[in-house]
Amino acid sequence: MRGGSWRWGFLLAVVIALAAAVAPLARPQIPVPDADPFYAPPEGLAHFANGTVLDSRPIAVFGLPLPVAAWQVQYRSTDSLGQPVADMATVMLPPGPWTGAGGRPLLSYQVAEDSLGTRCAPSYALRGGRDFGIVNTLLDVPFLTETLRRGWAVVVSDYEGPQSRFFDGVTSGRGVLDGIRAARDFAPLGLAPDSPIGAWGYSGGAFATLWAAQLRATYAPDVWLSGVSSGGVPANIPAIARGVDGELQAGLGLLILLSLTRNDPGSGLVELLNDRGRDALVRESESCGADLVVRYLFARMDDYASVPNLLSHPVFEATAAAQELGGAIPDVPLYLYHSTGDDVIPVAGFTALRDRYCAGGASMISLHSGVPGHNPAALVESFGAMNYLADRFAGIPAPQGCTAR
Q1: Average pLDDT of 223-234?
Q2: What is the pTM for the complete model shown?
Q3: What is the span of the domain harbouring residue 302?
């Protein structure tokens, strides 16, 4: 990738992000998903196969006149409870024909949805919704812009599903895989039978991406992933929550606590909350992670608990353990990266996951980045993540075994 094209792409992305944040003020508000009939599941949902396109509509990305064709695609998936769900994805097609070898690549890009409510979903942001909850999607504009500049088709799924099940690995992984199925079969994208498919996500998006890679062989063997890039990987969930507890990003700890409690009501976690904690469970039921970070600066989770050291309690740790990555070994080529100075997700969890994947026989390049900080590493290390995918899409074989950098 030439540096000049990246700089122009980044500048374009900044313009898009600013316009997306400002332009909606001049037009009617887009209804949030829960108030939009298009998101409602059709009758007989259970009779459709996973990945089936249920409905679609064209959209203008961020509500702007951009040279990108885009659609919202509703598709069938199955959540971790075994229930059929109608998920939503945004599929995007760059202008001009694909000039590379073979079919146009399809990239499944996972935004860090990090939410308790559907107004935080990327489909709402990408259609032009205005709400503070769109901030996570706006942060990914530079990466989405560059993938489209390369000529790749892109699918961005609301992988948490209509119940916004943050840190639900099975729901997220299935949502990603069925979103790929839907995009692959969506005729307006014009994908060819030999179009390679890849996946990429950072932070919360990496969680969903790697769960999809782990589930692929058993849940969606018809979906082959030529390459998977994931960075800022959320491994060791209790360590993440303990690391931010009482700190600037304490709201992330509350997001984790409330999500695990809500997703698994039989875990016993709700019984460990005090009145303040149970009130937060109700009051924040539709909040985005960004909302919580702003509202709960320097908060301590023990203030919401009826027991001391809640984040080290066996019930909390057992509930989190069910959602940890590493329970299965991906059988697709991996490129994983993480800052050694990550200020949000401790690097030790990443290292342990890397070692687990390698011991299980994964083919993987792993990078312990010296770029300090969670967000700076996301930007700087995106070069390697995208180039790894580009090589796989070009048919260059992935290195076998584990390579650590």
Answers
A1: 98
A2: 0.93
A3: 237-321
